[in-house]
Amino acid sequence: MAIEVRIPTILRTYTDGERAVESSGTSIAELVETLESAHAGLKERLLDDGAVRRFVNIYVNDEDIRFTGGLDTALSDGDTVVILPAVAGGA
């Protein structure tokens, strides 16, 4: 099962500079484990105590996983997962 995972600039040091990587899994939780085995250190940047970090947004085909089942969100072959760190600041 091939799933495209788009990696934000800040996390590309874990993927050797790649903007997107191919991975697999039947859920976001499984995908994160697969990503970690291929790109060590990525999991701790995405999860905290078994949940997605507050400032990290994960989308499956443009749908925020916070509204589709969180880490249990189902994945299918051909899905696109986007990891997007929240941005704050301004004046």
Core attributes:
five-stranded mixed beta sheet, alpha+beta, 91 residues, two-stranded antiparallel ribbon, 2 helices, globular, single chain, Ubiquitin-like (UB roll)
The CATH architecture classification is: Roll
What sequence of helices (H) and strands (E) makes up the elements? EEHHEEEEE
Segments where pLDDT lies below 50 for 5+ residues? Answer: none
Residue share in helices?
Answer: 10-25%
How far apart are the termini? 45 Å
The CATH class label is Alpha Beta
CATH homologous superfamily (4th level) name: Beta-grasp domain
CATH topology label: Ubiquitin-like (UB roll)
Mean pLDDT: 94
Radius of gyration: 12 Å
Task: Describe the fold and architecture.
It is a single chain. This protein has helices spanning 28-38, 42-46; strands at 3-6, 20-23, 47-48, 51-52, 56-60, 63-64, 80-85. The chain has a single domain (3-85), classed as Ubiquitin-like (UB roll) (Roll), CATH 3.10.20.30. The radius of gyration is 12 Å and the shape is globular. It starts with a strand and ends in a 6-residue tail after the last strand. 18% of the residues lie in helices and 27% in strands. Strands 2-1-7-5-6 form a 5-stranded mixed β-sheet, covered by helices on one side. A two-stranded antiparallel sheet has the order 3-4. The mean pLDDT is 94. It is of the alpha+beta class and 91 residues long.
